[in-house]
UniProtKB/TrEMBL annotation:
This is Aldo-keto reductase family 1 member C18-like isoform X1. Signal peptide: none annotated. The record marks 84 as: Lowers pKa of active site Tyr. The keyword Hydrolase does not apply. The gene is LOC109680004.
Amino acid sequence: MDSKHRCVELNDGHVIPVLGFGTYASETVPKRMITDCTKLAIDAGFRHIDAAYLYQNEEEVGLAIQSKIADGTVKREDIFLTSKLWSTCHRQELVQPSLERSLKKLNLDYVDLYLIHFPVSLRPGDEMYPTDEHGKLILDTVDLCATWEVMEECKDAGLAKSIGVSNFNRRQLEIILNKPGLKYKPVCNQVECHPYLNQSKLLSFCKSKDIVLVAYGALGTQRYKHCVDKNTPVLLDDPVLCDMAKKHKKTPALIALRYQLQRGIVVLAKSFTEHRIKENMQVFEFQLPTEDMKVLDGLNRNLRYFAGFMFEGHPNYPFYDEY
């Protein structure tokens, strides 16, 4: 890690800040709050903003970035912005128009990183989650290598500086890596990763291929009723994590974030509370000793908060594989 700029180099020569601000919010969060909190994050020092078409708040994120550029806090090149291609747009003819639609919403000329959000394809259309009369998701079958070819074209066109994937398992990464005529490798794989799901095998594989692992859900997750089992344990209440936080005079959240950084993982932190947004920047102010890292490794229980059960049954459902 480049400690001065708190960035790591991607396999295409660009750099990504190791701490990012996540912008996903449930429908109960007012859109205005997304703009306000993204501005607060930039003021606090965040330079990596993680967005997605699925989140339906790209306009609000864009407003925050434009506002901070206008008031002189940052220049466009200071911000590393990610957006993502949703599952209804995997067909080749839909990839670039989807990115262009996101850019229009963001009011930007390019994104720094564009990801295939999820390897499962859904029927194209205006619905994010197209369903039949029985409420079952309508799946689509798309060759992800064909999708990837247009992602490469988006990079060549300057619409995305870097391209990568999200929620891919090892097998799916290898399909892209072994694609005949591959022009650009994915620079990263963004996956759920936290002390209860430390992704050690996937991390080792990604490192061996010069692919950065980006962690979402790094603090556990909120209990989103449509996709998270409310009976799962709360990560930040874990007694081992809480004891370690007391020892270092930090919050359990900061311990969980620091754990990822020291493993060479780029980590996303999401909060809509001003003091927590500022507090998360303290992750650079301390180091965990080796023995503490080993203790945190021992918390792994392969617990996935977001298992994407609605996508089960599709041949590209990624979580049947061990990693």
